[in-house]
Amino acid sequence: MRSSEMRPKSPWGERFGGLARRRIPWVTPLYVGAVQAGAYATARLPRERRVELLRRHSTNVGNLRAGRWGTLVTSAAFVEEPLPVPYGAALLAALGTAEARWGPRRAAGVFAAGHIGASLLVYGGLRARGRGKDLPEATVRALDVGASYGFYATFGALAATVPHRGARAAATAGLLAHGIRPVLRPGRTFTDAGHLTALALGLAIGTGTGTRARRGAGAGTRAGRGAGAGTGAGMGAVVRGGQARP
After folding, report:
1. What CA–CA distance (Å, rounded) separates 197 from 143?
2. pTM of structure
3. What does the alpha-carbon distance between residue 90 and residue 61 come to, in Å, rounded to a whole number?
4. Is 14 exposed, middle or buried (0-12, 13-18, 19+ CB in 10 A)?
């Protein structure tokens, strides 16, 4: 019998070894790599065919009004152009950190809640805005694909779960300011409102998680109020006049 087999196994080694294996992000690089590979593949298509493909998988008013709810999922697999290196790196960092901290299932849940939730809320806001009148064709048939809603939600959830109260408050305030600024400008788009909405959803999810994990709910309550205000501001921007991306 080998000497290694004779040594008693340490429960601490097994515990930390299993933890390390579970917390190494693997879904994130697969997802981001697949999105980037798909972007380069679609970029090689003729322009008309590429636009048709992206529009078919967009969460625009036309698709959702027609009951094409599958676009709520497939839209996260497409982007209009290959991801720039800084954005791709930020996406990898945020999603990878969430996966390492929470595990792939919960991290994917936060991403999906932001992506699907913001898409539906923006759709509802646009339908409310267009009640009694026709929406611009550019809005109805807009190209609306990408991972940005899920990215913003994940970033918000990570910020809301920062352990230190002061750092958590600063991160939350900074992200809300970053999300609100675009919706205040005259040339805002419904995508800007969607980013703010997704960010607020992520902050709310992270606040709920952090509140349960910490003693005392005072800080969590304040962050939750900020998240709720962000969601309301995002929806208000959609109803007041967010336009489709050019």
Report:
1. 19
2. 0.78
3. 29
4. exposed
